[in-house]
Specification:
Layout (H helix, E strand, L loop, with lengths): L11 H29 L2 H26 L2 E3 L6 H14 L5 E5 L6 E4 L7 E5 H6 L2 H17 L1 H29 L6 H44 L2 H16 L3 H8 L26 H15 L10
Parallel strand pairs: 2-4
Antiparallel strand pairs: 1-2, 3-4
Helix pairs in contact: 1-2, 1-6, 1-7, 2-6, 3-5, 5-7, 5-8, 6-7, 7-8, 7-10, 8-10
Length: 310
C-alpha cells in the first residue's frame, strides 16, 4: 500500500498495520461469504449484496458521514477563518484543498472523511469552533488532514463497514430462511440458522478487535504527524485536553447517538476507560496522547508546556 506524497511525516508502521489489517479482514470476510454461500446455497445473492454495499460505502462515505453527523459543506464567505486555516495547512502539506464542512452540534469534535485526498472532507462542529483558540484549531485540523494524507480514512471506512455488511447479510439470511420455509421449521432450518449466527459472531468479534487496534494506532500517528507539521505540539495537546474535558461534561444521553462514529472523531464521544475495556476503545487514552506530544515538544525544543490550555 503506497501512501500519497505529502509533507506530513510518513509512518511505515501505520502503513504496515493498515496492510496487515486489510489482508486479515479480507481473508476473514472471504471465509465469511464462502460460509454463507455454503449454508444458504445462493452465492449470487450473497456476493451481489456484499459488493453493492461495499461499493456504496467506498464511493459515498463522505456523504453518508456528513448526513449522519448533520454536517454541511460551507463556503469561504460563511467561515473565512476556518477556510483560511485549512488552505494554509493544505499548502504547507502540499495536498489538495479538502472540502470544508460544519456540523451544528454542541459536542466539540472534528473528523475527516472521503475515499482519497481529491475527495476529502474536513468537518468540525460549532461546539469545537466556539471553544478553541486559532493555534489549537490548527492543530486539530492538521490532525484530521494527516488522516487523509496517510490514507487511513479510506482504510478505516472500508474496514468498519465490512462489519455492517456482515450484519446485513446475516439479517437477510435469517429472514429469508425463517419466512422462506413457510412453516417448515424443521431441524435443518434451525441448524442453518445457528451456523450462520455462530459464523457471524466469530467474524464480528475478530473484525471488531482488528479495527479497534488499528484505530488506536492511527490516532497516535495523526497526532505525531500534525505536531511535526505545525511545529506546535503544545497547541494540539491543549486542544486535546480542552476538548476531552468539555466532552466529559456533556450528558451521556446526548452523546449516545454520536458514539457509533467514535472511530472517525478527533476524540471519542465517550471517553476511554481503564483496564481490559481499553481493548475495545477506538482511541488511545488522553494520557498516552499527551505523553507522546510531550516527547515531541521536548525534541523540538518547544517552550510551551503540552497539555495546558492557553
Amino acid at each position: 500500500m503506497m501512501q500519497m506524497q505529502s509533507r506530513f511525516q510518513s509512518d511505515r508502521r501505520l502503513t504496515a498495520r493498515m496492510t496487515v489489517t486489510l489482508f486479515l479482514l479480507g481473508l476473514l470476510y472471504l471465509a465469511f461469504v464462502a460460509a454463507l454461500i455454503v449454508l444458504l446455497k445462493s452465492w449470487v445473492l450473497v456476493v451481489v449484496i456484499a459488493a453493492a454495499f461495499l461499493g456504496a460505502q467506498y464511493w459515498f462515505s463522505d456523504r453518508i458521514a456528513l448526513y449522519a453527523m448533520r454536517g454541511r459543506i460551507v463556503e469561504r464567505e460563511e467561515y473565512p477563518q476556518l477556510h483560511g486555516v485549512v488552505d494554509r495547512l493544505s499548502a504547507v502539506a502540499d495536498m489538495p484543498n479538502p472540502l470544508v464542512a460544519v456540523s451544528d452540534l454542541e459536542m466539540p469534535n472534528a473528523f475527516a472523511t472521503g475515499r482519497n485526498a481529491d475527495h476529502a472532507v474536513l468537518c468540525v462542529t460549532t461546539g469545537l469552533l466556539r471553544r478553541l483558540e486559532p493555534d489549537e484549531l490548527e492543530g486539530v485540523l492538521a490532525h484530521e488532514l494527516s488522516h487523509v494524507a496517510h490514507k487511513d480514512v479510506a482504510v478505516i471506512t472500508v474496514a468498519s463497514f465490512l462489519g455492517v455488511i456482515a450484519g446485513l447479510i446475516v439479517r437477510f439470511a435469517f429472514y429469508s430462511q425463517f419466512f422462506g420455509v413457510r412453516g417448515r421449521k424443521d431441524q435443518n432450518t434451525v441448524v442453518i440458522f445457528m451456523a450462520v449466527l455462530a459464523v457471524s459472531a466469530a467474524v464480528y468479534a475478530l473484525s471488531f478487535l482488528l479495527i479497534r487496534a488499528l484505530s488506536r494506532y492511527r490516532e497516535l500517528a495523526a497526532d505525531r504527524a500534525a505536531a511535526l507539521l505545525t511545529g506546535r505540539p503544545s497547541a494540539l495537546a491543549s486542544a486535546l485536553t480542552k476538548v476531552t474535558g468539555d466532552i466529559a461534561r456533556i450528558p451521556t444521553k446526548d452523546l449516545r447517538s454520536a458514539q457509533a462514529f467514535n472511530a472517525f472523531y478527533f476524540t471519542p464521544a465517550l471517553g476511554t476507560t481503564p483496564g481490559l475495556e481499553r481493548l475495545f476503545s477506538t482511541h488511545p487514552s488522553l494520557e498516552q496522547r499527551l505523553e507522546q506530544l510531550g516527547r515531541i515538544s521536548a525534541e523540538l525544543g518547544e517552550a510551551a508546556t503540552p497539555g495546558k490550555a492557553r
